[in-house]
Amino acid sequence: xxxxxxxxxxxxxxxxxxxxKDFAEIAMAPKxxxxxxxxxxxEAMPIAIQFAMAHVDDGVYIRSFRVRPTTVLLRGMRRxxxxxxxxxxxxxxxxxxxxxxGGRYRGRYRPAQxxxxxxxxxxxxxxxxxxxxxxx
Length: 136
Description:
two-stranded antiparallel ribbon, elongated
C-alpha cells in the first residue's frame, strides 16, 4: 500500500498508510452499528410510515415496520448495517403489487406501492428531496 500525503506545512509533511485490518475493524465497530440503527429508526422509519399512511389503509402493514441489525459484504469487506423491513404477511404484495386478474390469489390484485423503495430514494436524495443532515 502506498503512503498518502494528508498534511503539508512549511515545517513538516505528514503521510498516512491505512491497513485493511484497520478499515475492517472500523467497518464492524459497535459504534458504527449504533449510528446505522439510529438513522434507520429515527430517519427511515418515520418516512416509511408516512409513505405507508398515504398509500395503504391497512394498520397491520403500518405497525409491522422493524429495524434489524445485520452485516453486508461490500467490495470484499464485511460491514455492519441496519435494515428497515416490514414483517406483515402481505408486505411483498404492497411493495411489488399483484398480478392483474389476481393470479392464484383472485381478488387480491393491488398496484405496486414501492413504500420501502421510495423511502430509500428519499434518504439518498434520488427523489430530489435531499436531507442535508444525512448527506454529510
